[in-house]
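User: Working on a comparison across species. This one is Thiamine-phosphate synthase from Falsochrobactrum shanghaiense. Can you predict its structure so I can line it up against the others?
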Amino acid sequence: MVLDPFYPIFDSTNWLRRLVPLGIKLVQLRIKDKSEAELRAEIRAARALCAAHDCQLIVNDYWQLALEEGCDFIHLGQEDLDEADLGAIRAGGLKLGVSSHDEAELDRALALKPDYIALGPIYPTILKKMKWEQQGLPRLGEWKARIGDIPLVGIGGMSVERAPGVFAAGADIVSVVTDITLNADPEARVREWIDITRAHVTDKIMA
Ligand SMILES: Cc1ncc(COP(=O)(O)OP(=O)(O)O)c(N)n1
Ligand SMILES: Cc1nc(C(=O)O)sc1CCOP(=O)(O)O
Ligand SMILES: [Mg+2]
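Assistant: Here's the predicted structure for Thiamine-phosphate synthase from Falsochrobactrum shanghaiense:
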């Protein structure tokens, strides 16, 4: 399975309704602080919407709800892994993306044979408080050398302008939040992201 190089993250299905139809092919639903009933409704709606638009949905954190709602891909961070039943996740056929921020976390992620590994924050992020300093671009090259064919996601402080350098440094996929959600024109920004990431795919094929 080849994952699209543009991987936006949104905190509601309303965002997905607005932006997925523009041509997003890989998206994460990352919701915090909602009731189980609300989460379930969001995940259910997001699944239907993504199916209608041939977009791969990745559910953050809530692997049990993802399984129950018939989703097929989740993202878990290192703290989520402490609590997760990986046997049940695998038995349920869920594909898995895992966060990493240092070598020990990378080793742990690799042992799980995940479907992608994320490294962040590459640049400073304003989305959430993190204990990690910015990793910088060279770290992406180090990670790519370690993980080989597993897709590498760069996340944290991403922008359209930074994306080419992030790919050149070793990322296969760029994941982004506030460059879109805080933009004055999120639709136009998504179109710019799609253009720049499609150009990257074309360049790769021609190389
Ligand atoms: C693509 C991607 N990379 C990293 C994260 C962060 O996951 P995590 O560390 O579990 O933190 P939360 O996002 O759950 O706050 C991610 N969600 N997606
Ligand atoms: C959710 C998340 N995880 C990160 C990590 O490094 O694991 S950075 C991040 C936030 C990304 O948001 P923005 O594109 O607005 O910086
Ligand atoms: Mg998490």
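For your comparison, note: The chain has a mean pLDDT of 97.

User: Helpful, thanks.
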